């Protein structure tokens, strides 16, 4: 009967999932390696990607290690603002993230262009909307501070952010019946604040969650439910991404809420796919579907992220 008296494991073998076990009698164990050798195969842990893959809405708590430029195109349907409804259109925005230190980073967000067709609430007339800027978003400068760093897999990264947004341009609304023009979002200021979290889960899944708000102490014709020019909106999102190393494509699912818990509530589920291109570029595509009466009915987005 064979008796195992000692085990020798090479680090390189463990990395490859193979364990070498030397076995023999007591005498052979004392005298050398003359016993039989048993090879045990150890299951390998999945190798996961180290890329910081950006969802469409959520942002990582972990400070970025490289300058990151994100450009996004969106095509939305059935959005409502203070004076127009049934707004079907598209828009482009940019976001630049600059790491300042191990725990601090700065984000510059800029809504570049928005255009589309809508219906004037007061008259029911069709209107054409276009201009430099966004709908609910202003050009914004945001400072992030990571106050907790994960020291091992399974621990959370946590961060807080604070920013300001200010309207620099406006959208022009042209009544297609009368030819009259109205300016939308030509003035406004907003405070942005919140917390962020991310965590490496088992089997190459990553959790990313954000909880924050925006307070508009001045705005023009953008309240999503025909209310006051001064209002507050809560922004909350969670995302789960599956990212094994060297994969051709990464699947992701995201849930995004925006609202006030009273007169305006938008909830969107956003399935996404991310395609890595080389070491520095990701392309993300997804279509959000509105689950409640408020907010866009659908919102298709394509996002490119470049790290340099």
Question: Can you walk me through this structure?
Answer:
With about 300 residues, this protein is mainly β. The chain folds into two domains: about 10-40, no CATH class; about 70-305, Autotransporter beta-domain (Lipocalin). Helix content is about 5%, strand content about 55%. The chain has two helices and 17 strands. It has helices at about 10-15, 25-30, and strands spanning about 20-25, 35-40, 70-80, 85-100, 105-120, 125-130, 140-150, 155-165, 170-175, 180-185, 190-200, 205-220, 230-240, 250-260, 265-275, 280-290, 300-305. Strands 3-4-5-7-8-11-12-13-14-15-16-17 form a twelve-stranded antiparallel barrel. The longest helix is centred in the first third of the chain and has 6 residues, at about 10-15. The radius of gyration is 26 Å and the shape is globular.
| Total beta strands | 17
Query: Roughly how many Å is the radius of gyration?
Result: 26 Å
Quick check: average pLDDT? 87
Structural class: mainly beta
Q: Indicate the percent of residues in helices.
A: under 10%
Which second-level CATH architecture of the largest domain applies? Beta Barrel
Biggest sheet statistics = 12 strands, antiparallel, barrel
| Superfamily (CATH H level) name of the largest domain | Autotransporter beta-domain
Strand order of the largest sheet: 3-4-5-7-8-11-12-13-14-15-16-17
Contiguous uncertain segments of 5+ residues: 1-34
Overall CATH class of the largest domain: Mainly Beta
Number of helices: 2
SSE string: HEHEEEEEEEEEEEEEEEE
Tell me the CATH topology of the largest domain: Lipocalin
Number of domains: 2
Estimated share of beta-strand residues: over 45%
Terminal CA distance reads 62 Å
From the spread of the alpha carbons, the general shape counts as: globular
